[in-house]
Amino acid sequence: MSQVLSKSPKHCAEKQSFPISKFYKKLFFVFSSCFTIVLTFIFLIWLTLHPSKPHFSLTQADIYQLNLTRPSLLNSSIQLTFLSNNPNNRVGIYYDELQAYASYKGQQITMDTPIPPFYQGHEESNLLTVVLQGNGFPVAPSFGYEVGRDQSVGRMVLSFKVIGKLRWKVGSWVSGRYRFNVNCVSVVAFGPGAVPTSPFIGSSRGTQCSTDV
């Protein structure tokens, strides 16, 4: 009498699942290998090109107003012109979320003013103009005294800062965002007859800036 061997549906399913699982493992290995190759290729390009940080300079700063309405409230109006340069001959730069403001002896004296985003091609330069304002901007009670002391020597030192994010562009590949800071220290001469409580007119030209990425 012959014996008939039968297998349950569960056993059949287990037998068929093995090649399917093996197929997915191979597919995952192929995709992982391709992804690793692409990342390695991008990294090698990055090492080869090694992008340099952009250069900024303050070409002109014109102060149209800088006066105290009260001992600790300041009205200000300052127009700045920056020259931005991309020193890389194979890497473009996207600038995003740009803001500029002025500070005096470590205290901010204008509102944060946005600068429109832009793209800078290889070895390209752009002029950026921004007007900084502060109407009734709160400052330290010692502001008037400090400005009066600078008046005695005929000049004052202001810092103009630009903060934002940049992205590197190599071919069609664009990097993630990197925060950067630009700091320009400018010596501004007092206009004739300027006093801490009246409108102040002054200007400065040709100031090199430092950039941190």
UniProtKB/TrEMBL annotation:
UniProt membrane topology term: Single-pass membrane protein
The species this protein was found in: Hibiscus syriacus
Subcellular location: Membrane
Top-level taxon in the UniProt lineage: Eukaryota
A Pfam family it matches: LEA_2
All residue ranges annotated as the Late embryogenesis abundant protein LEA-2 subgroup domain in the record: 83-184
Keywords: Membrane, Transmembrane, Transmembrane helix
Name this protein carries in UniProt: Two-component response regulator-like APRR5-like isoform X1
Transmembrane segments: 27-49
Matching InterPro entries: LEA_2, NDR1-like
Listed GO CC annotations: plasma membrane; plasmodesma
Biological process per Gene Ontology, one example term: defense response to other organism
